[in-house]
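Quick start: read one record
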Amino acid sequence: MNLTQEDWVSQFEADENAVILDVRTEDEFNEGFIANAINIDIHRGQDFVNEIEALDKSKNYYVYCRSGMRSAKACEIMNQLGFENAYNLIGGITEWEGEVVEP
């Protein structure tokens, strides 16, 4: 499900079962990320699928990338793997107006 930044943030903040997932490359992640995000690079093919499958399917995942394209694909993959709640951030971190953590 695609959510605007406003909806993504308000839903995430009200969700006690939320996990933020960044599906960009490690290099992109290291340039700055949304606080508390875990990084699993969608470009890693089967390794990406394996790492996603190891996640807790009872959690709600708030997924983002640079522009929203890779995270939309990641949400599709997660839905196919049995995740019921994967939310894509429209516009990705490029349009993110919130705080960005720089490692």
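The two ends are 29 Å apart (CA to CA).
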